Amino acid sequence: MSATGEGGRPEHLTAHPRPGDRAPDLTLPDQHGEPVTLSEAVRGRAALLVFFPAAFTSICTGELLEVQLDIDTFANDRVQVHGISCDPQSSLRAWAALEGYRFPLLSDFWPHGQVCRSYGVLDERHGRPLRGTFLVDPTMTVRWSSVHGPDEERPIGLLHEAVRDR
């Protein structure tokens, strides 16, 4: 059993960016192999970064389906959703097609977990991200963040509150 800190978060993880911190930039391929760079994606609108442990798992599927059902709330002219995991691009493509996700799923597969690590949500022991969520504004400033353990479902209502004010 590993030691855990705040919110079921394993203690061996680095700190994640907090509101007011500069968001680490990232460039990752989406499920179709197209590179997505955060600093370009936030031009003129915010980005909601939704880190998840693994495609095709029950909690992750449920969370992202809730985001998908409320896509007009989460992804609009003010906010773009980006799902991020360490799954390979081909898995994310198959999962997005199966579930009908209409937002980019970004693969942090190689170098494994580099972006997850920069956001302080990579569980190094298990090689997967925690359920981190970050709202990044057009100036690359984190405006809202929440991190939950891999088996702890994130409350979608919190995402609604974060996005509503943008």
From TrEMBL:
Residues of the Thioredoxin domain: 17-166
InterPro entries linked: AhpC/TSA (IPR000866), Peroxiredoxin_BCP/PrxQ (IPR050924), Thioredoxin-like_sf (IPR036249), Thioredoxin_domain (IPR013766)
Regions of compositional bias (Basic and acidic residues) in chain numbering: 8-24
EC number: 1.11.1.24
Pfam family, one: AhpC-TSA
Keyword Oxidoreductase attributed: yes
Swiss-Prot/TrEMBL keywords: Antioxidant, Disulfide bond, Oxidoreductase, Peroxidase, Redox-active center
Reaction(s) catalysed (UniProt annotation): a hydroperoxide + [thioredoxin]-dithiol = an alcohol + [thioredoxin]-disulfide + H2O
Region (Disordered) residue spans: 1-33
Family: Belongs to the peroxiredoxin family. BCP/PrxQ subfamily.
Task performed by this protein: Thiol-specific peroxidase that catalyzes the reduction of hydrogen peroxide and organic hydroperoxides to water and alcohols, respectively. Plays a role in cell protection against oxidative stress by detoxifying peroxides and as sensor of hydrogen peroxide-mediated signaling events.
Protein's name according to its UniProt entry: thioredoxin-dependent peroxiredoxin
Protein source organism: Ornithinimicrobium pekingense
Highest classification ranks of the organism: Bacteria, Bacillati, Actinomycetota, Actinomycetes, Micrococcales
